[in-house]
Amino acid sequence: MSSAPSFSEKAGLPDLTPTPSFLEPQPKSSSYLDAIAPLTNTWNRYSAWRESFGLPNPGSTEQLTKEVKGTLATNFIFEGGRADLTKSLSANPAFQVTHSFALGSEAQPASYNFNTVYAKENLMMMGGFDHDGNVNARLNQGWTANSISKLQAQFSSQAGHNMLQMEHDYNGTDYNLNVKAMNLWPTDLTGVYIGSYLQSVTKNLALGVEGLYQRPTPDMSELSTSYIAKYTADKKDWIATALVQPSGIVTTSYWHKLSDKVEVAADLQLIAAPTRRDALATLGVKYELRMAGFRAQVDSTGKVAAVLEQRFAPTLAFLLSGEIDHFKSTAKVGAGVMIETSTLTPEEMGMPPQ
Amino acid sequence: MFSEDNKERITKVVEVSRTVLHYAWIPLIIYVGYTRSNPQPSLIKLISPLA
């Protein structure tokens, strides 16, 4: 009988259960939506019809040559000495700071860079500044699983070096739509606008178009389009892409994953404008081993380059970079160190205890 | 579309927000990261490259 008093006590308390207001009869949808119901029905039927083809998402235009760029050494070559000290301060949400030092390069003076990243499921904030006081900022906000807005900005104390880019990316079941506006000025709508659309045509082939609309002053504007094709193999182990600009620029690339550890890539750029005729071919290979990564490449301007990343521990890596230009008889050598420290214990980072 | 006054005002707003973001963006990320981190790190570890 001990439960009886507690029951009466409970009865005396204010009722905390939510009032079932949602159970009251309500119109199924608002009148606004009713008005466009035929449209949404048609759209839904159209989407279902398209989904019935089972075409894959082609990926965005920006990521068209992602695999090639990751394989070629071009983006990894550096000169002089450099040190990157990364500190992970939290794993979930991800928060890390990086201090980068670089010196001894002939092309650039010694520099210091600070970078910080904060990321959770659908929000990413990134910021960096250098010793000159230039700040760059990035903000990515995901709205749904396939819709993301991006903001990218650069602030400088020098006039004319400021930049702001707004971007929205939408991934449909078999297409990708991306719009960008750069340095948009609200009063006269000048700026640079880029829109791209990539559509899977068959299981392997995707075709797309990209439009670049430049409006530097209110009474001057220029539109240029480029056409894109991407062929992905059935097993996704090789990808070939082509980008054609009617002004006479053709860029083609080929990427092939030979095994788990070896990837090769080739890139060919042709410029056949009336004023200039030029071509550049690049061939590269990447080995991704357990404790080392090695990239080597050769291109048609007579440059041979290699970048080695040797990891001695999961948190410590050495970098060696070299490039020889045989036609100009010049060379670039770089050495660097990457140290990653963490205030977290291995368990906190989600690693199994050893 | 806009009167000269409004154009001037918009220019001013853009300039001010640009300056604010220039100086406040990194402190903002560090503040957000520092307060939401789990576990919360010590401040010296956050700022110093060597600690």
Automatic annotation (TrEMBL), chain A:
InterPro entries: Porin_dom_sf, Porin_Euk/Tom40, Tom40. GO terms for biological process: protein import into mitochondrial matrix. One of its GO terms (molecular function) is protein transmembrane transporter activity. Residues 1-27 are annotated as: Disordered. It is a multi-pass membrane protein. Keywords: Membrane, Mitochondrion, Mitochondrion outer membrane, Protein transport, Receptor, Transmembrane, Transmembrane beta strand, Transport. It is found in: Mitochondrion outer membrane. One of its GO terms (cellular component) is mitochondrial outer membrane. Its main location: mitochondrion. Belongs to the Tom40 family. This is Mitochondrial import receptor subunit tom40. It comes from Athelia psychrophila.
UniProtKB/TrEMBL annotation, chain B:
Its main location: mitochondrion. It is found in: Mitochondrion outer membrane. One of its GO terms (cellular component) is mitochondrial outer membrane translocase complex. The keyword NAD does not apply. Keywords: Membrane, Mitochondrion, Mitochondrion outer membrane, Protein transport, Transmembrane, Transmembrane helix, Transport. It is a single-pass membrane protein. Pfam families: Tom7. Signal peptide: none annotated. GO terms for biological process: protein import into mitochondrial matrix; protein insertion into mitochondrial outer membrane. PANTHER family: MITOCHONDRIAL IMPORT RECEPTOR SUBUNIT TOM7. Belongs to the Tom7 family. This is Tom7-domain-containing protein. It comes from Athelia psychrophila.
